[in-house]
Amino acid sequence: MSAAVAENTSRQLPDLAVTAAERCAAAIESGDKAEALRLLAAVGDEWRPLHDLYVEMSGLFATFIRDRLGEQAVEDVWRFIGERLWKPLLMQIRETGDTALLVQVYAGFLRAHGHRFDVTEDDEKTTFVLHYCASGGMLMRDGKNEDSRRHPIDIAVIEQRADWTFERPLSAYCVHTPLWMDILPREWGWDVFESRFGRQFDADGRPVDEPCVTMIYKKPRMRQEARP
C-alpha cells in the first residue's frame, strides 16, 4: 500500500450543513448588507427543489393509483388525506368562531409554496387571486402533466368531469384543491370556501391571464351534515 493511500483520511465539511438562513443571519450580524440581501433570496431558493420534488411525488403517487385502480381512486385518496391532515386543522380554526384565522393560515400556505398572488377584501369575503401557483401551476408551466410532451414526467390528467375536477380535465395533483377547498369543508359543515381553476399557462408553457381564485367567506354560506 502506498504512503499516499495509507495517509488518506476523512475530513469534516461543516459548510455543507450551514443553511442559507444561518448564512444570512451571520451577514446581518457582521453588517454586510449586500451579502445579507443576496442570501435572503437564497433562503427560498434552497427550499424550492425539495418543494417541487414533493409536488411531483404527490402527482406521481396519484398517477400510479389512477393507472392501477382508476380515476375514481384518485378522488378517494385525496379524500383520505384530507380527512387525516386537513380536517383536524380546519376544525381547529373553526373553533375560533370566524374565518379571520383561516385567511391568515391560507395566506401563509400560499407564501410558503412560493405562489404569486393578490388579496382583496369586502364585507362578504376575502379573495385570493393566484397569478402563479408554484405547485399545480409549476406542473403546467413545465409540461409535467401527461397532456404535454415537453417533459419526461407525465402526471395523470383526470378526464372525468365532476365537481372534484372543476368539471374539466385536471391534473391528478390539482384534484386536492376542489376537494379540500370546497367539497370536503362543505361536507364537514363549514361552507366558507369557493375556488376556481385557472390554467395560468398555455400548451407551450407561456403565461396567460387566467389565474386560480380562492374566496374565503366571513360567514358560512350553508351547513350540511358530514359525509358518512
Which terms would index this structure?
single chain, 228 residues, alpha+beta, four-stranded antiparallel β-sheet, two-stranded antiparallel sheet, 47% helix, 12% strand, globular, disordered C terminus
Description:
The protein has about 230 residues and is an alpha+beta fold. Helix content is about 45%, strand content about 10%. The protein has helices at about 5, 20-30, 35-70, 70-95, 100-115, 135-140, 175-185; strands at about 115-120, 125-130, 155-160, 170, 195, 210-215. Strands 1-2-6-5 form a 4-stranded antiparallel sheet. Strands 3-4 form a two-stranded antiparallel ribbon. Strand 1 and strand 2 form a beta hairpin. The longest helix is centred in the N-terminal third of the chain and has 37 residues, at about 35-70. It is globular and about 65 Å long. The model is unreliable at about 225-228 (pLDDT under 50).
What's the helix-strand series?
Answer: HHHHHEEHEEHEE
Question: Share of helix among residues?
Answer: 40-55%
The low-confidence runs, each spanning 5 or more residues with pLDDT under 50, are 224-228
Class from secondary-structure proportions:
alpha+beta
Gyration radius, to the nearest Å? 22 Å
Largest beta-sheet characterization: 4 strands, antiparallel
Average pLDDT, rounded to a whole number, is 93
